[in-house]
Design brief:
Elements lengths: L18 H12 L10 E6 L2 H19 L4 H8 L12 E6 L2 H4 L6 E3 L1
Parallel strand pairs: 1-3
Antiparallel strand pairs: 1-2
Length: 113
């Protein structure tokens, strides 16, 4: 069912994800509960292996420093982030908070890299 989830972190199929399937996933994501029905997330679709590698490289470069920004009790949770499979995945979806400027439009957008 599309309104459920499971974690898959390895052994991705090399098959491309059909646009229709991706639209269904984004539609489901846009219908998650939100305060006052205001969309609070933007989505970036990364189909390019190079884009995934750049995200992974940026995470690896900044994660150790970022961990020190959290109090001790939250640092362990932060340290369990699993992004090592991003370069291996044929498609990645990145959800990010809507900025104040984007909120003026009152809807989320999806971009493709």
């Amino acid at each position: 069912m599309i309104f459920s989830h499971r974690k898959v972190r390895a052994q991705f199929l090399p098959d491309p994800v059909p646009d229709a399937a991706l639209r269904r996933v984004l539609l489901a994501a846009h219908h998650t509960p939100a305060t006052s029905f205001i969309r609070t997330l933007n989505f970036v679709v990364m189909r390019s292996p190079e884009a995934g590698q750049r995200v992974h490289d940026a995470f690896c470069a900044t994660n150790p420093e970022a961990a020190h920004m959290f109090p001790d009790e939250k640092r362990a949770t932060h340290g369990r982030l699993k992004l090592q499979y991003i370069p291996e995945s044929p498609i990645n979806l990145c959800a990010s908070p809507v900025t104040a400027r984007a909120a003026e439009r009152s809807f989320s957008v999806a971009r493709t890299c």
